[in-house]
Amino acid sequence: MFTTALTAVKCRGPVARRRLKIWENTAVKPEELSAALRRLPLFTTLPAPLLAEVAALCGVRALARGELVFSEGDAASFLPMLIDGQVKLYRAGPDGREQVLHLVRAPASFAEAAVFGPGIFPATAQAVAPGQLAMLPRASLVDLLARRPQMVLALLASMSFWLRRLVDLVEGLSLHTVEERVGAYLWSAFVRSGRPLLPGAQVRLEDPKHLIAALCGTAPEVLSRTFRKLEADGAVRVDGPVATMLDPERLQALASANATLPASG
Fold first, then answer.
1. Which CATH class is domain 176-257?
2. Angle at 84 between CA 184 and CA 87, to 5 degrees
3. Tens digit of each residue's pLDDT (9 = 90 or more) over 235-250
4. What is the maximum span of the chain, computed from C-alpha positions, in angstroms?
5. Which among 264, 39, 28, 2 has a CA at the least distance from the CA of 132?
6. Model-wide pTM > 0.90
7. Burial of 222 per CB tally in 10 Å (0-12, 13-18, 19+)
8. Where do the CATH 1.10.10.10 domains begin and end in the chain?
9. Which CATH architecture has domain 30-163?
10. CA proximity to 214, closest of 66, 90, 51
11. Where, residue-wise, is CATH 2.60.120.10 in the chain?
12. CA torsion angle for 103, 107, 109, 111 (degrees, to 10)?
């Protein structure tokens, strides 16, 4: 974690949750930030001098659980880059029900299209775990793109990834059953754990059940029934935060039927 000196600017308007302040970075060592940014897929291929130039333009701050990074409709005046932690991107309906579009797991950048599109964030971003966020001001990013073609290619690749994620989300919600979506989520959790995918393998689920339900496009009570059905079908058992593999082939078949793996990255 970085040690940062922050200059906070008061946000206008009331908010229901803790709201991210505007900040400027005054104490992060350039080499520390460059090393952290190098882990982001967006910057993996950038040469060291260009990455150092990017780092010099960034602000950094700590994120608390529940803190809003931005709200739907806010001006997209910066590119957010998650160095540590998790952030959920969601849209809220008039009844307050949330549709989670993606769970961003560090290291990752996000909202690139909003920065270069209509200039507003189309969804809300909220930290679901403590972490560290870097911010690249839009004006600085536009200047870099005009001067550094390598930045253009890197950004196009990142925006392409997010487009594929949204297409997968629409397909998953419209063409696949709840059992298939939940099975895909659980299969991805086992794959990420790095453990052998064998009967009896166990993994501790990283996300609370209400967030798993949102990622799978269902309600918490439906998720609980789906867990019981998957156990009755002999695919997987979920006890609290622990999932136990019962039949790898059966669970993988569910995941393959729903090619989208919620929260896989």
1. mainly alpha
2. 50
3. 999 999 999 999 999 9
4. 59
5. 2
6. no
7. middle
8. 176-257
9. Sandwich (2.60)
10. 90
11. 30-163
12. 10
